């Protein structure tokens, strides 16, 4: 099932490794050398060449994003984003998480790609409360799309129907007129 929020943003329930988009975003760790969760799934689906390229990148800090090719994935490229580990919310987690979304969109635009799919960064092993993370994800993407002229199409790819419901609820909240 999918819900159109507006022309360019969509929420779906899917395995992100199956999406034939230009860019899928990986919720990576600072080593950029693979891990569990969506990171492990992306590396398994992309094949060992992805790890080889990742070894050349020198890691990334939280909030940074680095792009690789997609190899055996249906996606053309992977944007490896290092999300924040949740430490209670007053350690800059929100700004770090927003930076992941912004940088991934900037890199996508800079490469001339148009379609990008995000997993719910940091809300698995990294422990970020999903409702708060979904707000930051969607607000950051909306702000970016408002300021950009690029014809981007953004997919929020949730892994469970429960996560999708949270994203849809947040989308409805954000569509309320500001008072
Ligand atoms: P993090 O360490 O950033 O929290 P995780 O991979 O543990 O990263 O979880 C991030 C989100 O990715 C979670 O919502 C998890 O359910 C989801 N996820 C795991 N596997 C996949 C997949 N194949 N496709 C899309 N989302 C996935």
UniProtKB/TrEMBL annotation:
Residues 1-175 form the Macro domain. Transmembrane segments: none annotated. SUPFAM superfamilies: Macro domain-like. PANTHER family: GANGLIOSIDE INDUCED DIFFERENTIATION ASSOCIATED PROTEIN 2-RELATED (PTHR11106), MACRO DOMAIN-CONTAINING PROTEIN (PTHR11106:SF27). This is O-acetyl-ADP-ribose deacetylase (Regulator of RNase III). It comes from Symbiobacterium terraclitae.
């Amino acid at each position: 099932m999918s819900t159109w929020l507006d022309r360019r943003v969509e929420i779906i329930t899917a395995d992100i490794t199956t999406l034939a988009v230009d860019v899928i975003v990986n919720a990576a760790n600072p080593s950029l050398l693979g891990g569990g969760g969506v990171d492990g799934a992306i590396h398994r689906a992309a094949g060992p060449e992805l790890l080889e390229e990742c070894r050349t990148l020198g890691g990334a800090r939280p909030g940074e994003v680095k792009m690789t090719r997609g190899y055996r994935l249906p996606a053309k490229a992977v944007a490896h984003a290092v999300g924040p580990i949740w430490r209670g919310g007053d350690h800059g987690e929100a700004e770090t998480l927003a930076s992941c979304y912004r940088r991934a969109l900037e890199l996508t635009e800079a490469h001339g790609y148009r379609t990008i799919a995000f997993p719910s960064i940091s809300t698995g092993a990294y422990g970020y409360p999903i409702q708060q993370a979904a707000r930051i994800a969607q607000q950051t993407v909306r702000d970016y799309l408002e300021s950009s002229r690029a014809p981007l199409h953004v997919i929020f790819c949730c892994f469970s129907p429960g996560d999708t419901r949270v994203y849809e609820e947040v989308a409805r909240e954000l569509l309320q007129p500001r008072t």
